[in-house]
Protein: ABC transporter ATP-binding protein
Organism: Arthrobacter echini
Amino acid sequence: MPLSDPPVISAHRLSKHYGDFHAVDGISFDVPAGESFGLLGPNGAGKSTTMRMIGGVSQRTSGELTIMGLDPEEHGPEVRAHLGVVPQQDNLDEELRVRDNLLVYGRYFGLPMSYLRPKADELLEFAQLTEKSGAKVDALSGGMKRRLTIARSLINEPKILLLDEPTTGLDPQARHVLWDRLFRLKESGVTLILTTHYMDEAEQLCDRLVVVDKGRIMAEGSPAQLIRDHSTREVLELRFGSERNTTVAAELQGIGERLEPLPDRVLIYARDGEEALEQVISRGLKPVTSLVRRSSLEDVFLRLTGRSLID
Ligand SMILES: Nc1ncnc2c1ncn2[C@@H]1O[C@H](COP(=O)(O)OP(=O)(O)OP(=O)(O)O)[C@@H](O)[C@H]1O
């Protein structure tokens, strides 16, 4: 995209208050066309509230928001024509069969059957649900329902797809199938805006993301950039047993660049985890388990907030 192109979504000091409670507290971000942009944060961070404001179903308290240059509160129908929405909870019509869910949804957009029939078949193929075309929705697995919800959101060929926690509650295999479909959409040029509290999902899918906590943006960047800026290359995870994890910290001082004692383990942030482990052992300390891994967005979140992403 040329640098001069305006962002497809632009939020400036966007806020949503419920009484005295600031669910979204002055967040600003721009999303260029074709980007896969994430809001990563724990439960209650304000991610869904932000998505609802983008989708035009929740009014902001203050700030500015434009979608394709339009204010969703003033131009609801025009904005919605550009958007596909995948809400946190699947809201499929359980009574209808799989293909009919797509056809009926398409009718809400006033799309003619001559367009909808071939489009529904194309989307079912994309969602790997062709064989389930005539099945009742309540007979589908969780992953299949999620893919059908995504297929349905694409019926009007939206330029922007809003995905609120697309894989929460799915098993690892179903998540991978879904990620693959989302990759394909991204390749086809659809702008993806997704919320997640899974760091691996954010790392897999997002070109760029904002880390949100308590309605505020704590950091912004690509996953690799965030990890580089806020963590070390490797992390050594040690478990000493529940009593010892917090008391052992004093004996680990000076190893690695930073120490993070948690109730269930101690994290040592270091450029070289194996070297850090050698130092631990050379001090005569004997962890029950040890693991060297690469830093992740979970470590970034812990560094920025002092808390874990998953409650
Ligand atoms: N209608 C409402 N009235 C009062 N408080 C609300 C309302 N809707 C949301 N909240 C509060 O706003 C905060 C942000 O909620 P939101 O659903 O946006 O969080 P989230 O980051 O999407 O988390 P989750 O993954 O749990 O949905 C929460 O503390 C929630 O309880």
